[in-house]
Amino acid sequence: MTDSERSHPDAELESSELLPGEVLDGKYRVEGMLGGGGIGAVYRAVQLPLERPVAIKVLHDDLLSMKELRARFEREARVLSALTHPHVVSISDYGIDGDRPFLVMELLEGRTLEELLRSGAMTPKLALEITREILEGLAFAHEKGVAHRDLKPANVFLLKGRDGSEHVKLLDFGLARVVSTKGADDDEVTLTKRGVVFGTPAYMSPEQAAGTPADERSDVYSLGVLLFEMLAGRRPFVGETRAEVLRGHLADPLPRLASVRPELRAHEDLVELLDIATAKSPSDRYADGAAMLEALEDLPADAAWLVDPAEVSVAATQVSIKPPPPERIHRVGVAIGAGAALALGVVALTFMLGEGEPARPSASTPDVPPSTPSAPLAQRRPPARDPWAGEIPEPLLPFHAMVEDGYVFEDRREIRVLYALVQAMPDDPRPILLLGHLFVGREWYTHALARYERAYELDETVRGDPHLLPNLVFMAARDSVGDRAAELIERFYGPEALPALQVGIDDQSGHALAQLRLVNLRDRLRAMQ
Fold this sequence. Notes:
About 40% of the residues lie in helices and about 10% in strands. By secondary structure, it is of the alpha+beta class.
């Protein structure tokens, strides 16, 4: 625990605050209060007779009457005392002094990530290094069956080494939950039902915000939010009230980094890592810290970099993109104009039709009809518009051609420029739509749906894109993403989608379950008329 916590805003005095000079359990002399947390106050003390400085966490008086919390504290102590890792604060002892359970921790010198973030965004290199060390600590704890459940900047300590370097120590696993062996009747679940809320709104996972049990994937989400803040200089979801912040976690898409920090450029693999880590559904995230750590370590060395703020523009972004390896250049199946190639930083793309592409809705799928006044939802929608009917920005032309030709990319390096264009054109839904279309061809349906939703939130008229509705109908027939795709069809189109949906039903002849999904959706849409 840290010396810097003395001024922590939560350090409110308790009625039975330990006083300087008081000896706890006959072997720890209290020197003063450092701070407070959700279930305990933290004191600076010395171990007797060694005179060794330590930090001691003592359960708050107002919680002592709750049998479940006291039992939980004791169980936590036994588990945490076994968590010995360079990036997790060590627990050297625990016990009960009278009616006061306590934990003895190492006393740290340095600063918290919260203090570092007050100065704004940091270099991408530092942000990724801090993230790596956090993940190493989480991966270790998750392997032991322990989830943190309150990962936030104040609980990430930057321990200062003798050489001046800083290294991560994760604090306050006191809110951790033993997840590997506990069932639905565990005290942890009971405590949540009784109103003891774990987590901090700014970094809370959607399942925590909804009041449902959280596991290791909740830590993954919180770290995704933390990484975004370190890179962008602000939190992704902000609001004037707690409810507004929680609503962001539950419903709002993650903002694009470039829309918050325009001089930042991120490799598509890093963008993908953030998207997966902060997915709304736990099943769409990395399974635990080890899985996210593996993805982080697979990032290229140039996963994120900064450009001169004076050069921030779409053109500058295109030029700054690093081209794919030379061996992939010239292996082209569809010609790209020289002007477009130059604008893309002399990027050559591979066009090689993939095998095993899933059956698609037939070419006769009708265009989206105009909104019908008879549908209440349609009355609130602007008219559908084909976003490709006018002039297409030259940098998007090669990717538009890929979609029109049904090309299935083999390696994300082939579309790395498109990822950058999404960030460089934060108010234009077209590069996001192209990513969604290409992801459908690659069978990355979850990510395709996320892009479609993001594009629609930027501009509702994009529902006139000729590929959007057929692709959504195609995915609505699938078991893995059918429910989510159906939700988007209802939201984007309502009854307008009925003609395209009927085509999809006909296309699924011979596939009874897929056809049934579409028939059920058709019936719901008819009921909306």
